């Protein structure tokens, strides 16, 4: 994946989730087609930690089934950083086990201007992926 386009309403939904769940990290999955996100799936951070995120495996299984049945592809796994920048920690890189998806960080460090960055992680190496927040709606489904 060379880029990730996120419609403004999906970005706003991820930011709202991050704010609502702070100080713990919020997490979820972004699905779409050809690098454009069409659906956001909010997930439960079963660790309930402000520095670590672990998705509920049962929820994750259901989301993967829904993504496939909708004809979409998992594009990214996201989580928030309630008080730190939108950069990967060593633990984020170590726990990046899903191949061929972007890892997106939504930072609330600057409460008035949330930041989003994406990364590809391969063999323990992270490369930044361009993330563009689209200022227009693309017409998509919403989950949860």
Spell out the helices and strands N to C: EHEEHEHEEEE
| CATH 2nd-level architecture | 3-Layer(aba) Sandwich
Tally of contiguous helical segments: 3
Anisotropy-based shape: globular
Name of the CATH first level: Alpha Beta
What order do the strands of the largest sheet run in, or round the barrel if closed? 3-2-4-5-6-7
Number of domain units: 1
Query: Roughly what is the average pLDDT, rounded to an integer?
Result: 91
What is the fold's blueprint, element by element?
Blueprint: E1 4-7, H1 8-21, E2 27-33, E3 36-43, H2 57-69, E4 73-81, H3 90-94, E5 102-107, E6 115-122, E7 125-129, E8 131-134
Parallel strand pairs: 1-8, 4-5
Antiparallel strand pairs: 2-3, 2-4, 5-6, 6-7
Structural account:
The strands form two sheets. Strands 3-2-4-5-6-7 form a six-stranded mixed beta sheet. The chain has a two-stranded parallel sheet with strand order 1-8. The chain has a single domain, classed as Cytidine Deaminase, domain 2. Residues 140-144 have low confidence and may be disordered. The longest helix is centred in the N-terminal third of the chain and has 14 residues, at 8-21. By secondary structure, the chain is α/β, with parallel strands linked by helices. The chain has helices spanning 8-21, 57-69, 90-94; strands at 4-7, 27-33, 36-43, 73-81, 102-107, 115-122, 125-129, 131-134.
């Amino acid at each position: 994946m060379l880029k990730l386009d996120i419609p403004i309403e999906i970005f706003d939904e991820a930011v709202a989730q991050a704010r609502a769940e702070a100080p713990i990290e919020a997490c979820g999955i972004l699905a779409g087609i050809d690098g454009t996100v069409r659906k956001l799936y909010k997930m439960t951070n079963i660790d309930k930690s402000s520095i670590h995120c672990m998705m509920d495996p049962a929820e994750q299984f259901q989301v993967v089934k829904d993504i496939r049945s909708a004809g979409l592809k998992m594009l990214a796994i996201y989580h928030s950083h309630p008080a730190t920048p939108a950069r990967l920690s060593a633990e984020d890189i170590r726990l990046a086990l899903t191949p061929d998806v972007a890892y997106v960080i939504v930072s609330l460090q600057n409460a008035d201007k949330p930041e989003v960055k994406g990364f590809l992680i391969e063999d323990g190496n992270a490369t930044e992926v361009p993330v563009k927040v689209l200022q227009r709606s693309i017409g998509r489904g919403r989950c949860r």
